[in-house]
Every structure is written in structure tokens, then in C-alpha cells.
Amino acid sequence: MRIFSNVILAISLMAGTAFAETPAKSVEDGLPFEQFQMAALNMEKIKTFFSGRKAPKTAPLERTRSWVDQQPVVSGDAQWACLAQALYFEARGESVKGQFAVAEVILNRVDTPRFPNSVCKVVNQGTGRKYACQFTFTCDGHPEVIREQAAYHRVGKIAKLMLEGGPRDLTDGATYYHTKAVNPRWARKFTRTTTIGVHHFYRNPTRLSQN
């Protein structure tokens, strides 16, 4: 009987019926109507109301190839496409952790006043003359053809995760990087923050605040 009374009370709350200052006789008279309302309700919703069931937690992000490969294939808007292509052409041979790190650099640039304020503008900055660009693949004279679909799907997932607010804690605010195979003059003036795979990462000596 107590369970039935609790159900009636729950129904009254969900239906907007106020019992707070109502005489007992009126409540008893209203029971047939409330029973009719209970029959019309979705029983699954009633079970949820009493069970206190919570929404399942989202699995934590892992920067491993196996975890990323288990995630569903994604697509997105132009900004996603620009980031995915940059990761593919700049870092598809890197570890997944290294690909996340390159994504950090691009998004850190978007948030830094000295760089353009969108992913596509950052990726294509300086494109026009051969090798006069920020990301070599956009001005090296070679056609940008995606031939490795598995690698592209992987970096596409990473791009989506990072654009949706994935953590940027690998490069300590880096806005520059280069491979170990080269030793650019500008690197001497910047602070190296870390090395991941074949890339050294840098930021300006005075780190700017980020959004």
C-alpha cells in the first residue's frame, strides 16, 4: 500500500496536481482519476523515476592507437576537414600521441592573437608560394591526395575529439614544431616544451594566456 501511495504521489508531482493543503476526503475521491493517469503513463519512466538511474558515463579519452581505432568513423565541417588533413599530411607516420600533439599546436595557434582565428586559416597561412607557408604540405607543390584511408579515419577521429574540447596537456602551450631531421634557425629563439616521436615542440619565450 505504501508503494502504491508513493506512485500516486509521484504521479501527482509529474501531472502537476497539488495535494499540499487538500482535505483527506478530497484526496480519496481523487484516487480513481489518479489511477487512470497512472495507467496512461509510460511505465519505463516510472521505473526510471524510482530507480534514480543515471546516464552512462562517457569513456575517458585515451591517446592510444587501439582506443582511437575502436571509436566510430566521424565526419565534420570545413574546420574539421582542415584539421584532419593537416594531421594526415603532417603526422600520419607519427604515433597517435604525436598526432594529438600536432593537433594541439594548430588549436593553440587558433587561440593565439598573432595567428589567424580559425583552423583552416591557420593551416593555410602563407600558402601561395612554394615553401612559403606554415605547414609544408600546403605549399610543397605535391598534390594532396589521401591514399591511406585507415590513417585518414584515425586522424579524423583525433581531429573531432580535439575540436570538441579534448585536453591540450601534451605540449605545454606549444605553437611551433619541427621534425628532428631539420634544425631551423628560429628554434634557437623559442622555448622547447617537449619532444614527442620525431617532433620537437616550442612556444614563444613569453607564454600568452589562452581561452
Give a structural overview:
It is a single chain. This protein is mainly alpha-helical. The chain has a three-stranded antiparallel sheet with strand order 1-3-2, covered by helices on one side. It is globular and about 40 Å long. The chain is built from eight helices and three strands. The protein has helices spanning 2-15, 24-40, 43-51, 65-70, 78-91, 96-110, 119-123, 149-163, and strands at 176-179, 191-196, 199-203. It starts with a helix and ends in an 8-residue tail after the last strand. A hairpin with a 2-residue loop joins β2 and β3 (199-203). Residues 1-27, 30-34 and 53-57 have low confidence and may be disordered.
Descriptive terms for the model:
211 residues; disordered N terminus; 3 strands; mainly alpha
For the CA atoms, what is the radius of gyration? 28 Å
Morphology call: globular
Broad structural category: mainly alpha
Beginning-to-end CA distance, first to last residue = 57 Å
Widest sheet, order of strands: 1-3-2
Order of helices and strands: HHHHHHHHEEE
What summary fits the major beta sheet? 3 strands, antiparallel
